[in-house]
Amino acid sequence: MDAKIGVLALQGNVSEHIDAFLLALERMGHGPSSEVFEVRSPVDLVDCQALAIPGGESTTISRLIDKNGLYEPIRSFNGGIFATCAGMVLMATTVEDPRVHPLGLIDMAVDRNAFGRQRESFEADLVIEGLQGNPFHAVFIRAPVVTSVGKDVRVLFRVEQGIVALEHGKHVAFSFHPELGNDTRLHERFLHKLGITGQRK
Ligand code: GLN
Description:
Blueprint (H helix, E strand, L loop, with lengths): L3 E5 L5 H14 L7 E5 L2 H4 L4 E4 L4 H10 L3 H5 L4 E5 L1 H6 L2 E2 L12 E4 L9 E6 L9 E6 L3 E5 L4 E6 L2 E7 L2 E4 L10 H9 L8
Parallel strand pairs: 1-2, 1-3, 3-4, 4-12, 5-6
Antiparallel strand pairs: 6-9, 7-8, 10-11, 11-12
The structure holds glutamine.
């Protein structure tokens, strides 16, 4: 099956997500008819099977989602969402910061910038539930953590401060940046779960 993957392109790490999904598709054996493209308005979402919501500044992305008329279209989007960092904040049902209008697509409460000033940015090797092979090298940049989840959320990794990787139905959310570096295992696993399998013979 050809893949059509959108990356929300309002602010943040957009090109990194496009490159990571292109690399994942290539490794899965997809050809040029599978596409990864920018989503800026509701029509761009129509053909997508999957949407990435990148890291960046959640307050800014939130404002631009509202301004571009994307709030309800993303809420009723039928495909899977791959949300990282600021994207994770936006997927929540509860965010303390009133400047964020969360999409409420994953039953969870999120704390922005949860690691504080001293640890604005750090890296760690995580043994993520269900991920084969070596630990995942995760880059955290002014990262959020999830402080509580509903019962249908599957926690994939947790640190002392809270949950940093989880899945909920078709959606996944990470407080770190799997789009940085070229380990595409989390992207590939997400696509497999959506039924976007490889085309390798
Ligand atoms: N701290 C940012 C926010 O809450 C997220 C940082 C990031 O996406 N790298 O918007």
